[in-house]
Model the fold of this input.
Amino acid sequence: MDRSALKTRAREVIATSNPRVITVGLVYLVITVVLSALGSRVMSVNISESEAMNYMRYAADGNYEYALKYLETMQPPTAAYAINALLLLVSGVVGAGFTLFLLNTVRNRQPCFGNLLDGFGFWWKIILLNLLQGLLIGLWSLLLIVPGLIAYYRYSQAIYIFLDDPTKSPIQCLRESKAMMTGHKQELFTLDLSLLGWYLLSTLPYIGYAAQVWTVPYTSMVKTLYYEKLLGSNVWSYTPDYPI
Done:
């Protein structure tokens, strides 16, 4: 697979898409940032200066057991963990909606901003798929990094397969992804390496958020086109459905 041509094609689709992939990507990023901020707020603990001083005093005096108990009283309540988990799950469903938008863009299936919310029509399957995928990758990661990395690429196409046919079960999508990626895991790993600079740029303090306005739509589009290539589709046939 020609990585350079694939990335060039991704930029072409982004430049000619309607609605603009960058604009929809920006809306997606705003939603995820808001959800993340809400999660951080829910999980935050307001500690007064006197409470912090008391904890430090207990620790300095060697009363570690009491210091730990004192620290436990300042932890977020159980409900906060539940709300934060719910916000993470909602973010995953919106992420699936953005992937669906990219698939519709590439396939000329009248993509729209509403695609971001289409995942809520089968939200429980998306959540279950994400949980199962994370569990499998986590279990393989217990055997060291390489098995976990292999598992990550083995199941990397599961969400695309599901969005292509939501009637499929999460287990079936994972199995089909495993079959689809046979002989292609190293290929996708190499593609990711070629995008590493963009990934790292997104993690930089302050400018990372601004960089994501481009990096998230761009890298996501490359991955979407890669899936299309795995299906044997002609990714060079895209033209907008309506005037730009």
